[in-house]
Amino acid sequence: MRVSILAITAATLLATPVLAQTAPRFATVPAAAAMSETLTDLDVYNGAGEKVGEIEDVVINGKDVVGYVLSVGGFLGMGERYVVVSPDSVAVTYTASDKKWHAKMDATKDQVKAAPEYKYDAKHKS
Description:
Layout: H1 2-15, H2 36-39, E1 43-45, E2 51-61, E3 64-72, E4 81-85, E5 90-95, E6 100-105, H3 109-113
Parallel strand pairs: 1-6
Antiparallel strand pairs: 1-2, 2-3, 3-4, 5-6
């Protein structure tokens, strides 16, 4: 009896159609798009030309970019802290004449330094 049940179960599983695989969806990279590698370590300046931070990381939730982690304050890696800003608040552009990426945001150094601190947890920092 046990052999019959196993045989019927195996036959049923083998007869079940394999789920069809969907074809991957491919995309094109827009000319104005920036790669995450380009963004990391990019200095962020305000309208007055002051450096207000440096992009350390890009925060992705599912399919959406939800923030940039900026390092602010500190000197030579001492006393630096992290804050997360909305990607809408940072304009990232490429200037063909100097072949460089630029990041600009409308905030003072003090405003960025006063933002809530973000601390990486083990899951998010390698």
